[in-house]
Amino acid sequence: MTRRGRRPAKGTHKPVCSSLRKILPGVEEWRADKVEPAQLEEILKLLDLNQSLREAILANMGDRKWKNPRNKAVKERLAVFDAMHNEFCKWAKACGWSARFIRESSEIFMPLLDISERIGYTIYGHQYRSMQYADLILDSDKILKRVVIPEVAKLSDRAKARIRLGMLTHDIGKARIDAHLLRLGGPLSREDKAAIDKHAGFGGEIITAIFSSLASAWRTMRDGEILSTMAVSHHERYDGKGQPKGLIGREIYIGARVATLSDSIDAMTSKRFYRDKKDPPADYKTMIQKVRIDMDTQFNGMVVIGFFELLEHPFIEERVCEIMRSGGGNP
Ligand SMILES: [Fe+2]
Ligand SMILES: [Fe+2]
Which of 119, 204, 205, 208 satisfies CB 3.0 to 4.6 Å to 232 for a cystine? Predict the structure, then answer.
């Protein structure tokens, strides 16, 4: 990835677009159910990914049950997939990407996002719901008409659009983790936890590979750096006890601090494959208590205070409950 401030050398842009058209002929309207494993294999070959990363992603494509269009859960998943795709295009446009770059990048991002969602432990759409929570936090100043999170208030519209894209793709590295590991549930052995924790780094690797293969404009490369940072840093903790680098306080990018809170809210309030009746998703009140307990340790206190101020707005409280319900929770 190009370092901040340095433009990529001319002529390094690979002709990925024409290759994609050969791999995906006639796929004008993007649908998850249109891409076959052989096509995904070809798409992955366009990226500078190492072989083990490619093979692990393809192994996760093996689960084809989700394709049965008569299955109600499959229909719901495809609806969420389409919503994710729309959001991806919307925020990519807000970042100023060209129509061609949006099409090319979504054709690579979306099948990988689909795999990471299908094999994840929360019900389909975790990254989408996390983005919806982040969306409220990023718009907190506009909603409340005053500055509630100073560092967020300083961000440009483009920086906020990047963070929204970063939320949509923060767990893309799960596409590379063995599906059975992700669904084991707790308590996990130290080895299993370490293997799952690697998804953050894999996500950064995948995003960097996509942007290195497609992006030629310096500003777009910068967007790619932010998306990659968000994937790598979303499990960092404000107190420095997080993964993978143990960054502390403001060393963690503000977008990643918003991501940690938004990601955790969905993780604690949505249905999980391995959860049983003794361990249901947290309800609204319990979620607030858990967030308060982890304020200034896992979460940045400034972001939490902004979130709590938002919740005092009756419309926002209802919106949060609505997102929780869409994740199978019972607020
Ligand atoms: Fe994660
Ligand atoms: Fe996540």
Answer: 204
